[in-house]
Every structure is written in structure tokens, then in C-alpha cells.
Specification:
The chain contains eight helices and ten strands. Helix 1 packs parallel to helix 2 (about 70-85). The chain has helices at about 40-50, 70-85, 95-100, 125-135, 175-180, 225-230, 265-270, 270-280; strands at about 10, 60, 90-95, 115-120, 140, 160-165, 165-170, 230, 235-240, 255-260. It binds iron/sulfur cluster (2 copies).
Length: about 300
């Protein structure tokens, strides 16, 4: 089965994010004003298509939206995914804003396996403990847990908990102080100089420069992300990786197809997708497309 190779699907069930973090392309690509939802029929067709093609990997409900901004919709979409693909690992990231406001109303009935809370405001570890209490998340020992995201985050800046069926809840304290950012498909690269733009934190540690991973140097190695990931925007566009997004005009041409018009199987096996994967796996870095030139991912 061709989907055996795919390890992770990212899907935006709607578009909205309530923040504009300076380290995120949402700072200029608006996700704040309107909330566009993925059509339910399209979403269910996607899940069935994944099942029919033997997909056995992670489903992440995070891309450039804030998944808990509409928790009822998130809960329903995760439930539907669990019904159709019961053995797949499901997770999402959150900025925690709605958890702070609504507590465990967000979590009750959310059938995720993993939830990652990012402390973008640098409120610290004690705030994380309070938030866990407010949301009835039971703190667990950190021993033996790395999670499958942000695994290098030091144990002192991280909390681990569980909530009913959510097996792992991570809280990443002081995120902007400990995290190095990516160029996001060239979004943070100055096209004239080929150098990364200065990114200054606008939350928590306001005014402090956020560093780029590996100084955002020219990429010369292959990339397997388009082979092992599928990244689906709220409008149905399937992108080759997490950095490429259809609402960035610079990225529009890299969309591989739309699940409103084609099955994910047709998209993944299309000439365009096969060619893109081949180029990125070839290591012919002089020919890499613009979004990949200074990418340090993978
Ligand atoms: S980093 Fe997260 S919270 Fe911040 S703008 Fe991007 S999607 Fe929203
Ligand atoms: S190298 Fe290109 S395809 Fe790979 S993760 Fe970076 S932007 Fe995406």
C-alpha cells in the first residue's frame, strides 16, 4: 500500500488563529479575521480515503490555525477520525489561550492521544501547573516521556500530564526562550540577500530576537518530508510539507491538488507530487524550489 510510507497527516479543519506571533507566517497571512471551515463531506471522504489506502500514522489537527478556537468542531472532527481510523495516533498543538479561559470544557470529549501546550507568553512552569489544575490535567512524572514533538526541550521547562483519554499532555514553558525557528518555506528569508530576516518576539519575552535553527543556511541535503507527510489546508489544498501553505501567494504553485476535487491517493501519486518528492530526495540542491532553499527542517 502506497500510504505505508506516510507517517503524518496534518489537517486544518478550520482556518482561524487568535494570535499573530512574529515567528509565524500568520503575522502577515491573515488567519484572524475570518474562520473558514473545511467541508464536512470533504473531511469524511479524506478519512475514508486514508483508511482505504492503509494509512497508519499520526494525524495532527494543527497547522496554522488554533485548533481549540472552535473546540466543539475540533472535538467532533477528532471523534470522526477516531471512528474511521481507530488505531492512528492523534494530536494537536495549542497556544493554550482557550484552555486558560474555558478550562476542561475544551478537553472533555476531546479524543486526542496527545496535546501540546506552548507557553508563548513566557508565563513559566508555575503557570503551567496552575493551568493543569484549572483544566483537571493530572501531572505525571517526566521519567521516560519524550513525546514525539519537541523532544529536545529540557525537562525543567516542561510538564507532562494526562487528562481522561488524552494520554499525554505536554506543557512547554517559556517557549520563545527555548525554541529555534524555521524559515517557513522562505517566508522569513530576505529574497535580495538570502539572509534570514530579524524576528523579534512580540509575546512573553517581548523585544528579544528569536534565533533560527542552524542559522538558516543554504540547504544542501535531501528532504523526505514530501514523502512521509501530507499537509492539508482548510480549503482542501494538499501541500508537500508543513512549511508550504496555499494562502501564501509565494507557495500557491506548490500545492499538489485539492481534496475537494481529487482523492488524497490521486494527489499523492500525481505526476506533480512524484516529481516534487524525487527532486527533494535527489540532493540536487541547486535545483531546489524557492521554499526549500534555506529550509533547515529534516
Ligand atoms: S504560532 Fe500558533 S498561535 Fe502563533 S500565530 Fe502561528 S498558529 Fe497562531
Ligand atoms: S526542504 Fe522544502 S519540502 Fe522539505 S521541509 Fe523544507 S520547505 Fe518543505
Amino acid at each position: 500500500m502506497i500510504f505505508d510510507k506516510i507517517k503524518k497527516i496534518e489537517v486544518e479543519v478550520f482556518s482561524k488563529c487568535n494570535r499573530r506571533c512574529n515567528w509565524c507566517p500568520n503575522v502577515a497571512l491573515d488567519r484572524l479575521k475570518e474562520n473558514f471551515h473545511m467541508d464536512e463531506e470533504t473531511y469524511l471522504r479524506l478519512l475514508h480515503n486514508l483508511k482505504d489506502n492503509g494509512f497508519k500514522g499520526e494525524i495532527s489537527f494543527s497547522r496554522y490555525n488554533e485548533p481549540t478556537a472552535n473546540h466543539k468542531v475540533l472535538q467532533k472532527r477528532v471523534r470522526q477520525a477516531k471512528e474511521i481510523l481507530p488505531n492512528n495516533y492523534m494530536l494537536c498543538n495549542t497556544n493554550g489561550d482557550y484552555l486558560r479561559r474555558k478550562g476542561d470544557e475544551i478537553l472533555d470529549g476531546l479524543m486526542l492521544d496527545e496535546l501540546n501546550i506552548m507557553d508563548y507568553d513566557c508565563r513559566g512552569i508555575e503557570h503551567g501547573k496552575e493551568l493543569f489544575k484549572k483544566c483537571n490535567i493530572k501531572e505525571k512524572s517526566k521519567k521516560g516521556f519524550t513525546g514525539n514533538q519537541q523532544a529536545k526541550y529540557s525537562a525543567n521547562n516542561k510538564l507532562i500530564g494526562e487528562y481522561k483519554n488524552i494520554k499525554i499532555v505536554h506543557y512547554y514553558a517559556d517557549w520563545p526562550k527555548h525554541h529555534q525557528i524555521e524559515t517557513r518555506g522562505g517566508f522569513f528569508i530576505d529574497s535580495k540577500t538570502g539572509k534570514p530576516k530579524k524576528v523579534i518576539s512580540n509575546y512573553g519575552n517581548k523585544g528579544v530576537e528569536v534565533p533560527f535553527k542552524k542559522n538558516a543556511t543554504r540547504r544542501k541535503h535531501p528532504c523526505n518530508k514530501p514523502t512521509i507527510n501530507m499537509n492539508i489546508d482548510f480549503n482542501g489544498v494538499v501541500n508537500p510539507c508543513c512549511h508550504i501553505r496555499s494562502d501564501n501567494p509565494e507557495h500557491e504553485k506548490y500545492g499538489l491538488g485539492n481534496i475537494n476535487e481529487m482523492s488524497v491517493h490521486e494527489i499523492y501519486t500525481s505526476e506533480k507530487a512524484v516529481k516534487f518528492r524525487k527532486l527533494l530526495m535527489s540532493g540536487n540542491w541547486q535545483d531546489y524550489p524557492d521554499p526549500c532553499k534555506y529550509c533547515t527542517k529534516g
